[in-house]
Amino acid sequence: MPRSALVAVVLASLLVAAPAAAHVSATPPYLATGGSETIDLSVPNERDAPMTNFSVTVPSGFEIVHAHVAEGWNATSEGSTATWRGGSLAPGVEAMFGLELRAQTEPGAVQFQAEQGYDDGAVVRWPVSLTVIPADESSSQSLALVGVVGLLGVLVVAAAAILAWRRRSAPLQEK
């Protein structure tokens, strides 16, 4: 995959992930195809009732290698779903759940389905965004590339703002 296409895929996935960032989110937000990596899921309890279970279902092309035990929770995985039970997450508190995944899919943006269960019987579902990057690119190189592209974007916007400000504030010359 050409570097420009990789940049487009990563930037598009970051835009897709932005609306869900306040809910369940993945760190790091990328995984190399063919690779296996632990993804930490940040799970806030945004309801007034305690959260008593949490699960994540991955799409085809992904394998759950291992669901890591979180403090106070029991972890299990079966097929494409990992589940944590036995704990309790108080309202307004955030917990981290680890999940080792292997991607056997094409590079691009994907979404997993996260499900939070509560002691009052409510269930809340959230999409979790992740970007699959090419296997021949190391994670640090891809992250550095995204950082450079982002920095260049900030510099271009800042330069445009300075030019616009200078044009507005320049005194009118009399003829």
What does this structure look like?
The protein is α+β, with helices and mostly antiparallel strands and 175 residues long. It has one domain (3-137): Immunoglobulin-like, CATH 2.60.40.2230. Helix content is 26%, strand content 42%. It contains two helices and ten strands; from the N terminus they run H-E-E-E-E-E-E-E-E-E-E-H. The strands form two sheets. Strands 2-10-9-4-7-6 form a six-stranded mixed β-sheet. Helix 1 crosses helix 2. The model is unreliable at 5-22 (pLDDT under 50).
Secondary-structure topology with pairs:
Layout: H1 3-17, E1 25-27, E2 30-32, E3 36-44, E4 51-57, E5 62-67, E6 74-78, E7 81-89, E8 94-103, E9 108-118, E10 123-133, H2 139-169
Parallel strand pairs: 2-10
Antiparallel strand pairs: 1-3, 3-8, 4-7, 4-9, 5-8, 6-7, 9-10
Distance between the amino and carboxyl termini: 57 Å
Order the strands across the largest sheet as they lie in space.
2-10-9-4-7-6
- Largest sheet properties: 6 strands, mixed
User: What structural category characterises the helix and strand content?
Assistant: alpha+beta
CATH architecture annotation name: Sandwich
Name of the CATH homologous superfamily = Uncharacterised protein YcnI-like PF07987, DUF1775
Overall pLDDT: 79
Could you please say which CATH topology applies here? Immunoglobulin-like
> Rounded to an integer, what's the Rg over CA atoms?
21 Å
Which series of helices and strands comes N to C? Answer: HEEEEEEEEEEH
